[in-house]
Amino acid sequence: MSRSLDLPSLDRVDTLAQELALLQDKGKRRIAFLGSRHLPVVSLHLVELIARALVQEGHSIITSGAQGVNAAVIRAVLEVDPSLLTVLLPQSLDKQLPEIREQLDQVMHLIEKSDNDDLPLPIASSLCNQEIISRCDQLICFAFHDSETLLTSCRSAEDIGKVVSLLFFD
């Protein structure tokens, strides 16, 4: 009697192998964090905990400069080792919200994209996310199921072979 096995697709096996290899790799990685501007307080603490732990292991972190996930990552990394943090802004520092500017003033490696100041923020953010992804080895993303810009960024990161960890708030 023959049995049919539901085997995972080959691309999923490759992704799993890649993720397992990264877990065993003791080398330092460039890890990008992207995420929603609006998140529950409990999730905020989780984001900080993950970022802090990765920096304590010596990994470099790259993120953007928005409130929410990005601000939590920045706060955590600044507490541990500011030299391991790069923040890439979608537009110039002047275009950022006043609430986040004080935190951004503490960032050693801050990259402004003033060429994008005339673009609508969603387009500038999408371009920024793509550049962040191009600079990283791994992407950790915190999103809601309707976060179109973030989900598109995750798909494009997977398309170019990046390891993506996508965590949902809802």
CATH architecture: 3-Layer(aba) Sandwich
Rg estimate, integer Å: 17 Å
Largest sheet: 6 strands, parallel
Main β-sheet, spatial strand arrangement: 4-3-2-1-5-6
Distance, first to last CA: 44 Å
Structural class: alpha/beta
Describe this structure in words.
45% of the residues lie in helices and 17% in strands. The chain is built from 6 helices and 6 strands. The N terminus is likely disordered. Strand 3, helix 4 and strand 4 form a beta-alpha-beta unit. The longest helix is centred in the first third of the chain and has 16 residues. It has 170 residues and is of the alpha/beta class. It has one domain: 3-Layer(aba) Sandwich (Rossmann fold).
Core attributes:
single chain, 170 residues, alpha/beta, Rossmann fold, six-stranded parallel beta sheet, 6 strands, globular
SSE layout:
Elements: H1 10-24, E1 30-35, H2 41-56, E2 60-63, H3 69-80, E3 85-88, H4 98-104, E4 109-111, H5 121-135, E5 138-143, H6 148-159, E6 163-168
Parallel strand pairs: 1-2, 1-5, 2-3, 3-4, 5-6
Question: How is this structure best summarized?
Answer:
With 170 residues, this protein is an alpha/beta fold. It has a single domain, classed as Rossmann fold, CATH 3.40.50.450. The chain starts with 9 loop residues before the first helix and ends with a strand.
